[in-house]
Amino acid sequence: MLIKSIQELIGHTPLIELQMPVPNNSHIYAKLEMFNPGGSIKDRLGQYMIQDGIDKGKINATTTIIEPTAGNTGIGVALATQAHHLPTILVVPEKFSREKQTLMKALGATLINTPSADGIKGAIKKARELADQTPNSYVPMQFENPANPATYYHTLAPELIEDLDQPIDAFVAGAGSGGTFAGIAKYLKEQNSHTQAIVVEPEGSILNGGPAHPHKTEGIGVEFTPPFFKDVQIDQTLTISDADAFKYVRQAAAKQGLFIGSSSGAALAASLKVAEQLPANSTIVTVFPDSSERYMSENIYAEPTTEN
Ligand code: PMP
């Protein structure tokens, strides 16, 4: 395969049928988004949002791009802006993985850290302040930009339909900005109104009404209900503990040769719960957003101790 730009490798990732015991003889298929060149599902978003800004005349040849991010979107945005030679500032809460922050800088972006305690809201505020001070700047703002769910509606969701012959009974995905879940759930329900859409969050995220608190599962969990959820019917919200998410991260590597990040571990834990609820032989589709290699500095494969 000869390619001329790394951008050509974004999307059309493999869909794997997991080879593991699944309740009720159901089948779980996972979209392996770590196979995107920047290593995550968010390469699609960077490419789509920057092109959308260009097409809408919001970005010209000298625009500075400023974006708040937990990391993977920053890498995706930096890959896209590098291709267009656009100066880029990414605002990242300190707590997110070293690996992601190193890669954003390696791509040429300027990184600004905000205090972990201020969460993603602190990064959003800082990005807006920087934009006010920077002439000819543009903040794609993944947390409210309709191009975010549109990315997944137009790319990943049709790939699922293309790759599977049978109807999808349930779609299971984690939510950070909520773009992945909302865009794919909307598309799949338009194709088949019987497809259930199940959103996954870690303990400490607010969707199921529990108190907000820090969690180790990285990339998912919300501090406010994503605005994109207004446009899609959510059949169920499953809250997965850090312990369960990391248990499946270890199991996926040990049993299936799959290096998955903790949000993928949570998606797998949730998919198995959904399999328990659905009739026999159901088809469940989920998304593995990134790889464990992004979290080595956080000891992602450490066995739990008695304290946790
Ligand atoms: N998993 C990981 C590892 C992520 O980086 C993200 C994006 N923050 C998500 C899941 C959630 O995706 P979305 O923002 O589309 O809800």
Secondary structure layout plus pairing:
Elements: E1 15-17, E2 27-32, H1 42-55, E3 64-68, H2 72-83, E4 88-93, H3 98-106, E5 110-114, H4 119-133, E6 137-138, H5 147-154, H6 156-163, E7 170-174, H7 179-191, E8 196-202, E9 236-240, H8 242-256, H9 262-277, E10 283-288
Parallel strand pairs: 2-10, 3-4, 3-6, 4-5, 7-8, 7-10, 8-9
Antiparallel strand pairs: 1-2
Helix pairs in contact: 1-2, 1-5, 2-3, 5-7, 6-7, 8-9
For the structure shown, list the relevant keywords.
10 strands, alpha/beta, single chain, pyridoxal phosphate, binds 4'-deoxy-4'-aminopyridoxal-5'-phosphate, 308 residues, Rossmann fold, EC 2.5.1.47, 16% strand
Question: Strand count, sense and closure of the main sheet?
Answer: 6 strands, mixed
| Cα separation of the termini | 46 Å
How would you state the average pLDDT, rounded?
Answer: 96
CATH class of the largest domain: Alpha Beta
CATH architecture tag of the largest domain: 3-Layer(aba) Sandwich
Question: Which structural class do the helices and strands define?
Answer: alpha/beta
Cofactor: pyridoxal 5'-phosphate
Family: Belongs to the cysteine synthase/cystathionine beta-synthase family.
Catalytic activity: O-acetyl-L-serine + hydrogen sulfide = L-cysteine + acetate
GO molecular function: cysteine synthase activity
